[in-house]
Amino acid sequence: MDVPDRRGRTGLDQAGRGLTGNPRVRVRDVRLLTSNWFVTRATTIDFQHSDGHWSVEERETYDRGDGACILLYNTRKRTVVLSRQFRFPAYVNGHPNGNLIEVAAGLLDDDDPESAIRREAEEETGHTLGPVEHVFDAFMSPGSVTERLHFFAAPYDEGTRSGAGGGLGEEGEDIEVLELGIDDALARIGSDIVDAKTIMLLQWAALSGPFARA
Ligand SMILES: Nc1nc2c(ncn2[C@@H]2O[C@H](COP(=O)(O)OP(=O)(O)O[C@H]3O[C@H](CO)[C@@H](O)[C@H](O)[C@@H]3O)[C@@H](O)[C@H]2O)c(=O)[nH]1
Ligand SMILES: [Mg+2]
């Protein structure tokens, strides 16, 4: 398909047709359902169950590309930089106001994960980072969403500050930058910190990352 989605991506309408890595899965048919801001597909597969029999299954997938996220931390002050922004999908599903506290994050678009997260950290938090540490990669919602998220962490201080942050107005972003104590942030998990990538990075930082090492 040559018509790009709104992020400029093309050729995603038949994704999955050539997959051969799993001998228990044969892709029969891929149908494009929607292509607007992102792409959704319905894929029909022959699937071999563990007892050996085959069945035909259909799976819908939501393809928004991959993303990256980063925890900015300061071990001397024992603080982290987070952001707050409105997330409609959370609002429509029971979050009281949709204003989610998150680590800085963004879609890769055409960049490699490290370049993308440097760009997003600068746009969203106003920090131009030195060395960044790759933590792990994870599928965030593998039953329906294709996205693989690349997790990073980096130190920040007054020397890395280069701007105000806040996101790109022309992309409709309106991001409040927050600095929280790590103990306060950890205590707020499950009450007003309910974003998965943020919880994962805060717990990593406390268990085996910078606040465990410090
Ligand atoms: N008009 C319009 N704009 C959209 C739509 N969906 C997203 N946008 C705009 O596109 C921007 C994308 O900003 P990024 O910073 O690149 O992505 P992100 O939404 O912050 O994504 C990060 O968080 C997601 C949620 O946790 C992650 O899924 C993703 O991997 C990444 O980490 C959003 O802020 C929003 O302004 C849409 O359907 N319509
Ligand atoms: Mg973002």
UniProtKB/TrEMBL annotation:
<feature type="binding site">
    <location>
        <position position="124"/>
    </location>
    <ligand>
        <name>Mg(2+)</name>
    </ligand>
</feature>
<dbReference type="InterPro" id="IPR004385">
    <property type="entry name" value="NDP_pyrophosphatase"/>
</dbReference>
<dbReference type="GO" id="GO:0005829">
    <property type="term" value="C:cytosol"/>
</dbReference>
<protein>
    <submittedName>
        <fullName>GDP-mannose pyrophosphatase</fullName>
    </submittedName>
</protein>
<feature type="binding site">
    <location>
        <position position="120"/>
    </location>
    <ligand>
        <name>Mg(2+)</name>
    </ligand>
</feature>
<comment type="subunit">
    <text>Homodimer.</text>
</comment>
<keyword id="KW-0479">Metal-binding</keyword>
<dbReference type="GO" id="GO:0006753">
    <property type="term" value="P:nucleoside phosphate metabolic process"/>
</dbReference>
<feature type="region of interest" description="Disordered">
    <location>
        <begin position="1"/>
        <end position="20"/>
    </location>
</feature>
<dbReference type="GO" id="GO:0016818">
    <property type="term" value="F:hydrolase activity, acting on acid anhydrides, in phosphorus-containing anhydrides"/>
</dbReference>
<keyword id="KW-0460">Magnesium</keyword>
<dbReference type="GO" id="GO:0019693">
    <property type="term" value="P:ribose phosphate metabolic process"/>
</dbReference>
<feature type="domain" description="Nudix hydrolase">
    <location>
        <begin position="63"/>
        <end position="206"/>
    </location>
</feature>
<dbReference type="InterPro" id="IPR000086">
    <property type="entry name" value="NUDIX_hydrolase_dom"/>
</dbReference>
<feature type="binding site">
    <location>
        <position position="105"/>
    </location>
    <ligand>
        <name>Mg(2+)</name>
    </ligand>
</feature>
<dbReference type="Pfam" id="PF00293">
    <property type="entry name" value="NUDIX"/>
</dbReference>
<dbReference type="GO" id="GO:0046872">
    <property type="term" value="F:metal ion binding"/>
</dbReference>
<dbReference type="InterPro" id="IPR015797">
    <property type="entry name" value="NUDIX_hydrolase-like_dom_sf"/>
</dbReference>
<feature type="binding site">
    <location>
        <position position="173"/>
    </location>
    <ligand>
        <name>Mg(2+)</name>
    </ligand>
</feature>
<feature type="compositionally biased region" description="Basic and acidic residues">
    <location>
        <begin position="1"/>
        <end position="10"/>
    </location>
</feature>
<keyword id="KW-0378">Hydrolase</keyword>
